[in-house]
## 1
Amino acid sequence: MTAEIAAALKALAEANPIAGAVAVGVFGVIAAIILLGRTKHVFADMAEEGRKGTFQEQLLRALEAMATRETAMQAEIAALREQNVQMAVQVELLRGQTRRLIDLLREVRDGKRRPEHIDLPETPA
Amino acid sequence: MIRRVVKPSIRFAKWAFGAPVPGLDLMLAVLAIGWAFAAGAAPEVFEQQSYAVLRLMPPWAVAAAMGALATAHVAAMRRPRRAGLRQAGLLSAGVVWLSVAVGFALAGGWTAVAAYGVVAAACGLGLIYVEAERAHDR
């Protein structure tokens, strides 16, 4: 078995050393680039830049969402204002009717009008 | 029906190609297993001149080396965040597949040179990518 392993290693050493040397050389350069990048903090700096970019993007997205929400809220405010105007008109009408009712009651109290002479409108369905 | 086919495919694609790209290790493991099986089942293919790099190695040695490589890739695929393990596998695979590509270049098999050259390039880029991911995870 040992002789077989030795033969295999010898064969591996003899088998096309150029190809192996080129491969080891190329990947040695890649490994050296990585190690150099690690010692010079190139990868760490790039990761930090990426994180900053991500944070800025997140901020921008949050601002855009806020702007969209503001537009929706403004539309809601406009609708509420319109509703308020309609309510004010209805309250004014109600006030007029109440005044009219009080006048009629006063006339009945003072004997100026008999209750059966009061015209009551039909209650709307 | 189509959803049953497409949904798992999308899930697999997202797992394989989304960060940290364990699909790279899966691809390399499949390739190494293929070579290990070829060395065991049909060692005569290594007698061809184009397989000059491995021609002189006994088939069991080729199968053992490829099996070890495949095991390393599968281990890296299961734990893709373990940068050291992954880089060791990628570096070994890169040397192996680039030496195969150069071996084919010396023998004149240009299609194989392109194919294994791409695999070796993927290993090299994978090494740099894993280092960048490691820095990002910190």
## 2
Amino acid sequence: MAGLYNGLAVMEDVQTRSYWDHVTGECIHGPLRGQQLPRVTHLRYFPARAVEQRYPNARLALSRPGLRQRVLQRVVLRRMLSDEGHLPFMFSASMAQGDTRRPAMELGLGVWWPGASRFYPMERLRAQGGAVIDTLGDRRVLVFVDPVSHSPVAGHTQAHDCRWQGEDLLLDTKEIIRDLHQLQPDGSTHPLELLPQLFTRWYGFAATFPGCELYEP
Amino acid sequence: MADEPYVTKTGMVVDPSRLKRNGETLMFTPFTVELTEPIGSVLEHRTIPPDTDLLVAVRDDDRVIALSRQQMAYHHVAQGQLDGEPWVVFF
């Protein structure tokens, strides 16, 4: 991790000294500028117990923290990861003038699709009961707060309406969303088709997708 | 290396003169993963509390890597190999 730009860390590959945008996988500087990483998948957030339930074959990797890492975790990183957030000076000093439509550190789900990008603030998702159906480009999308991970998720849907029943999300197509899977009325099930998305802070998404739309209920 | 600004496919203007770096020193120390443990075993032996926030990268049902969110806020990058295939996770 070699640099910062717009308050975001920038990856460098040491073979070509090219810089890569971690959100989109596009090379933004260096000899490979304009090229695209072949496969980018986005991280999911879960408590460890839920990982065991959902992905029993998952393997955990833990680093062995040295003194510097332990001190930083205690002093800075916990604040950075809190809902309110905290941006150390080294990050904020790399930012240009930000998009002031929302508070810079607000958490939300950024979703994009060819020709469209939209930010769903957590506050607005929760105000809508934790699940909304929306249209993004040519796609109908279901955006909801996953009851297990408490983080937002966006998936493709054909539904026009939804409501919660416990931890199940019932769609007006008679389908049920459970554990990030879609249960069909005939009893079959398949993984929810996820759109490109990132659970992030407003400043980062707005910097990566300038002029992005904001979800309005 | 081109020094003129570059506009990404998402419309972000990248001005190389604004890229902050610390000379040739990496700003963050990557986590090179050499050892992983099954999540079930980790929880059974209480290596981490069950409510620990994890980041999960899913390649397919049999190739799922979990990382500590707090540790990744320090490293930002984890990299390793699984079944001979290189992977990198960014946070």
